[in-house]
Amino acid sequence: MGSILWLRSGGASGAAPCAWVPEGALLLGLLALAGIACSSRPAQAPADLVLFHGAVLTLDPARPEAQAVAVRGGTIAAVGSDAEVLVLAGPATRRIDLGGRLVLPGLVDAHGHIQALGDDMASVDVHGAASVEEIARRAAARARELPPGAWVSGDGWDQNLWPGRAFPDHRPLTRAVPDHPVWLDRIDGHAGWANLKAMQAARVTRRTPDPPGGRIVRDAHGDPTGIFIDNAQDLITVARPRPTRDQIKESIRRSLARCAAAGLTEVHDAGVGDEDVAAYRELADAGQLPLRVYLMWNGIGPAAAQAASAGKPLETLLETPPLINYRDRLTLRAVKLMIDGAMGSRGAVFFEDYADDRGNKGLFVTAPEDVEKRTELALRKGYQVCTHAIGDRGIHLTLAAYRNALAAVPTRDPRLRIEHLQCVASADVPILKELGVIASMQPSHATSDMYWADDRVGPQRGKGLYAWRWVLDAGIPLAAGSDFPVDPEKPLIGIHSGVTRQDLKNWPEGGWHAEQKMTLDEVLRAYTAGAAYAAFEENQKGRIAPGFWADLTVTARDLRVIPAAEIAGAGIAYTIVGGTVVYEAPRVN
Ligand SMILES: [Zn+2]
């Protein structure tokens, strides 16, 4: 029954049976299913796109490797040898000679922040700036590109790089940019630097008191110098106008173009509000989403705080029914929660003290009982839940919340996820498996954090740091991502981390906690089939097989034959989504 239904729809969009043997349609359809195209005559409708002379890694057990792929109507029509597939090309078919390049099922980033990347791209990058004057120059250059009065934002300054190593004050910024408010985040996000216009816009004066948990740096006369520490940063940032719908759309477009160039065919956006969703829908309606996007509602924090920041409470957001594959690009069926903080700032929640900070076990961002309540609510509304949980106790309590929520709302296929899972207790690995929880992990976080992560947790807990091997060996589904812009959006960097557990300078020798390394095949599956499963898309995505979405990533060099140390720089030749080439490297052939 399934095959017959598939054949009927196949006539319009999939692998059409050859018209000259009408009675044999079922058999030929099955052959097409197995990836064998009709070889003696052209098929009824020519393919839109044929990729040939490639090394196709299908991740399809029925046909693990092939040379060529034909695409029709956005899905894969045939996979096979050059001879088998090229017969599907007609006069209007685009043919791409891959010159032996590697074709993978379209890579997915299962956890990224699309708008944050787009905003970063448009802001002033002052990382590495060696003087206050250099920063002022960069801010002024940006201001000249903006309409009068628009805010100039940026980040990355670090006074430790300057002569004297003292905090700056507003004056050089005010002199260089007198007419635009300027706000620049320090490299660690724990301080911000404002010019006079920004302080005026925020109505901050010498009479403004320090807020709880924050400090306004003041000069000898008591006047704010322009430096705002921790919670005092909010005094300025609340004055920044919220982005307009058009600005949100522009940021998404900019970010997705970057993601397409990195070889991504889909991103799971880990936290959006209702304005963002409206922007995504408009972009989808206009045919302006090059990539597929899988959205998670931002359900973080107390409802009151959400309301105060003009975000709607989760209860209201979930009145919107899930949206599945809208305009062949957009899905909204998940909720992002966050139980604890991060390990770098010692906010992740552990059973025992931080090894390098006695008395500190971390901080809950959301109370565990609230995680449970929100999970219940989401399950009732047909939504998946993806909870940021990093410390061993944060992970343990998230699993307990999931167990209780599933008891209250029995759900056939919930696919609850834990985002990050950075330091798991070995005793909790079987619980992940038992509850069917998906591990959504970021290979490059391991190699970004390895310089200090052992100091935080010590040798015993350290065995569970970024423990992909434990996850895979227990048969737990693993989805890979980058958490961009925290780490670069480039999946090749994550693939390198997953295989080597080394940084880009091949440090440390042999790899950090090398027993957790993945094979290339495993890490590729985590970026394709694993991420597809995490989005309920395993029947459309994650393998190159007839009837699947024509989402493909072509690398410039073959990841299977180059030294592992060269994977991160292997290059992307083509990114294809739904049969459309959304990125093509310059001078690829
Ligand atoms: Zn994130």
Strand proportion, as a percent range, falls in 15-25%
Coarse structural class: alpha/beta
Mean pLDDT: 90
Helix content: 25-40%
Terminal-residue CA separation:
44 Å
Question: Which geometry do the CA atoms define?
Answer: globular
Bound molecules: zinc ion
Number of strands: 25
Q: What does this entry look like structurally?
A:
With 589 residues, this protein is of the alpha/beta class. The strands form four sheets. Strands 8, 15, 16, 17, 18, 19, 20, 21 and 22 form a nine-stranded mixed beta sheet that branches. The protein has a six-stranded mixed beta sheet with strand order 3-2-7-23-24-25, with helices on one face. It has a six-stranded mixed beta sheet with strand order 9-10-11-12-14-13, sandwiched between helices. Strand 19 (384-389), helix 14 and strand 20 form a beta-alpha-beta unit. Helix 19 (491-500) packs antiparallel against helix 20 (520-527). The protein starts with a helix and ends in a 5-residue tail after the last strand. Residues 111, 113, 270, 483 line the site of zinc ion.
